[in-house]
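Q: What structure does this chain adopt?
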Amino acid sequence: MPRQPTAVRRSSFTDQPRPTARGLLKIPVIRALFFSGFFLCYTATAYDVLLVLFAFTPVSLGGLGFDPERIGYVLAAAGIGGTFVSLIALPWVLKRWSPGRVYARAMALWPVAFVILPLTNWAARLSSAVQGQADERSEAMIWVGIVLSLVMAKAACAAFG
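A:
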């Protein structure tokens, strides 16, 4: 039995047919925006997960050996930093530079944010290998590494804007 033609869904605002997902992805600009947004979201989520993993894992296994309370402080700082970037820094930056330039620079920060995490473990290993536990100086180096990594990640999240 031949297939009956289906009714074309119409947009309530125009007389044109409603575009399908496949139809939208055939448009090169839309496809580029879709994949760019997908990879940006994937990278941001991967960083958030990796940050918690690094913070929780013992120093001997490549992490920082933080207890849940310290991890909570790190995540709270990340949330405050993200709020600052979104509400205060990003509007100021976008007034001075084009969105394309901000996006490219922000995306270039992701590798730096990811690389800093193993370097903080390296600092933690050096301090624990020398003294058995972290002294004030090495503790400060670890926190500086975490703060630098968070600053890079939250600045990279400006690409969402």
